[in-house]
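Summary of Year 1 activities. Much of the first year was spent building the evaluation harness for sequence design. The harness presents a backbone, in tokenized form, and records the residue chosen at every position. We chose the following record to illustrate the format because it has been used consistently in internal testing since the harness was completed.
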């Protein structure tokens, strides 16, 4: 990964490598590689590229189960949309791991209604799959309320359609 000239691509590759090392149980090597990925990402001069690299790093950290580190990286992203995406991905990873309360807390901290509705939808689906019917219903209702608050009509319709599909799939 160090041979990759483009800093954004190098940061993403290091993040993916670190996630693979973590999955293989190589915790020290993973931690060192995550740190290297963050250093590369934070040194990127272009704001958009830096935000995208940090979002990808937060996603890799979440995938590796490094939830606190993922949240710290996500919250350090200056770009509001990329920060919202990173927090949404973290909430989804937490929900899939059965960390429902933590997933809800992260989802509710997302400023962007589109990403918050998506994260709550993923959480609701995970709760339904786990047999937590009442919590799933409450979370689907919360996702609907957030989706209905999306200002852009097209985005609102898309979010509500995705929510309806997830609700139908959950039964």
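For this record, the design step produced the sequence shown next.
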């Amino acid at each position: 990964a160090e041979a990759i000239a483009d800093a954004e691509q190098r940061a993403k590759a290091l993040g993916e490598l670190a996630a693979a090392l973590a999955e293989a149980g190589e915790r020290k090597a993973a931690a060192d590689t995550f740190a290297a990925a963050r250093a590369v990402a934070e040194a990127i001069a272009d704001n958009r590229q830096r935000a995208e690299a940090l979002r990808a790093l937060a996603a890799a950290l979440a995938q590796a189960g490094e939830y606190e580190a993922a949240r710290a990286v996500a919250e350090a992203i200056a770009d509001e949309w990329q920060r919202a995406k990173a927090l949404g991905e973290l909430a989804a990873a937490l929900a899939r791991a059965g960390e429902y309360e933590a997933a809800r807390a992260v989802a509710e901290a997302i400023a962007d209604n589109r990403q918050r509705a998506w994260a709550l939808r993923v959480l609701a689906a995970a709760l339904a799959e786990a047999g937590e019917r009442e919590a799933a219903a409450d979370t689907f209702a919360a996702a609907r309320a957030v989706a209905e608050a999306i200002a852009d009509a097209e985005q609102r319709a898309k979010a509500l359609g995705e929510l309806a599909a997830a609700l139908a799939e959950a039964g």
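The two ends are 44 Å apart (CA to CA). Quantitative recovery figures across the full test set are reported in Table 2.
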